[in-house]
Amino acid sequence: MTGQEHGHESGADRACPEGAPRDDADACRVIVLPEECRDPSVQGEDAEFAHPADVADHLENLSLERQVCVLRHLPAEDAADALAELDEHVRVDLLENLDADVAAQILSEMSPDDAADVLDELDEDHRDVLLNSLETEDAEEIRHLMAFDPDTAGGVMNTEVIILDHGLTADQAILQIRAEIEDKEIPYYAYVVDEQDRLVGVLSLRDIMLCKPGNKLRDEVRGQGLISVLFDQDKEDVAHLLGHYNFMAMPVVDYEGRLLGVVTHDDIIDIIHDEASEDMLGMVGAGTDESVDTPWHESVLKRLPWLVINMLNSAVSASVVYMFEGSIAQMAVLAVLMPMVANQAGNTGQQALAVMIRQLAVERFDRRKAWWAVLREAKIGLSSGAIVALLVLCAVWAFAGSWKLAAVMSLALLLDMLLGALAGASIPLILRALRRDPAQASSIFLTAITDGAGFFIFLGLATLVLF
Questions:
Q1: DSSP secondary structure string, 208-239?
Q2: Which of the 8 DSSP states describes residue 257?
Q3: Distance of CA 432 to the CA centre of its chain
Q4: The Cα angle at residue 242 between residues 239 and 246, in degrees rounded to 5
Q5: Confidence of residue 228 (pLDDT cuts 50, 70, 90)
Q6: How far is CA 354 from CA 1, 36, 275, 348, 418, in A?
């Protein structure tokens, strides 16, 4: 693919109301809530929506019965657009309660990649019923997309692209585009292939319109530097590449270079959003695909293992405190100051953890650069720890009147903040080396280290110096 950007447009043409922007057809057609599905007891209920995403937001606040009513009575195209915007769990409930014929009609109006995503969420028996209700051609295309791993480029690609043979002339290409463009989701760019369907170039419609009528497409794309991804490449890598090159779409090819489809920028936005959500949830041990619509018993099963691990970690920290029971009994102020050490180190570690996880999410850096990043966080932890330790030294001395206690507190704080920074930066790298999600429960592991080590360092120093 060349350096030019790729565009994306979906759906049939929508009539824009007067004064509305006309550069986004999806945002122009007003969707009207069916009269028979409105609740007469609700005053001022929205009846018109400017975009399918607004319809989806409204549907998620309705009862299942009214959701089914709305989708049954909306035009199939509008229902398909709204269904694609709904939360996964809402979609599943809706499809399970819609008549198979109605559901199949809605799915047939969706782009194949969206339909594949929706059907992939259903149980196998229900999925087969809906696929058998679709036209043979649509069902085969959706099954083809569902055969790819959903976490790869093939699993998120769209096949509704304009494909031109490199032997066509510019005017022949224009005629083909005119005949096909209404049914294509990405109508602004054409992908040029050879006799073996191998991708050889990408042309914008502007490029084609400016070609001399008799020019062959093979001549127009000669010398292009193509950038594409393999169908089994991780979708996160595809998102990184798309952002790196500032493309709006990325061609997907097989090992022989044959064009299979295109990953568009709207899919990339979803990927980045999903990955950010997964990282945030995974850091604290929640289910990476949880939402407020997830059944509560599923959330319990996803969270409970990490809560048990966290309890075991807390038990380790408690045992460290118990080891120094005598010291705490002799000087109660230790119990007051002890949580400050762990909390400050934990906060330092969380900062390093967040920076490292974000870096891993947006860039695949090599091992040497990764460990230089750990060293950088160690420097930050040491410098910050030294400044905070100096402040605490003065404060504790003034509060307790003991320079020894102040020295113990400040030194323990410095060491634990350094440890927190090192642990926060290292945990994601260790998890990645173990082929685990770098964000998975990393916050739980970090807390275990900073609490246990912080208590041990502080109470150990106090026992050596003060008693």
A1: HHHS-TT-BHHHHHTT-----EETTSBHHHHH
A2: -
A3: 17
A4: 140
A5: very high
A6: 34, 50, 14, 10, 16
